[in-house]
TrEMBL record:
Domain of life: Bacteria
Protein name: DUF7092 domain-containing protein
InterPro entries linked: DUF7092 (IPR055518)
Organism, scientific name: Oceanicola granulosus (strain ATCC BAA-861 / DSM 15982 / KCTC 12143 / HTCC2516)
Domain DUF7092: start-end pairs: 21-76
Length: 76
């Protein structure tokens, strides 16, 4: 993996369509919401489909998993 200007993470090969799942914490409630994740490369945004949120790639930061696990934690 390498970082290049204008992208968050560049990888050698990605599937043409990505759909994953995660949890969403909005910062106002301790209750997490399950959400489906996808990339919209046309607009350059990560889409959290079940919560109606979209974040530009360049505003996403990966944080260390504070619980010591191996999960990806994104600060949006």
């Amino acid at each position: 993996m390498s970082r290049t200007p204008g992208t968050v993470i560049a990888v050698g090969r990605t599937p043409p369509r990505f759909r994953g799942h995660g949890i969403y914490l909005d910062g106002t409630s301790a209750a997490a919401r399950a959400t489906a994740l996808s990339f919209d490369d046309a607009t350059g945004e990560l889409v959290l489909e079940d919560v109606g949120a979209r974040w530009p790639y360049d505003e996403i930061r990966r944080l260390r998993d504070q619980a010591g696990g191996d999960q990806a934690v994104l600060r949006l």
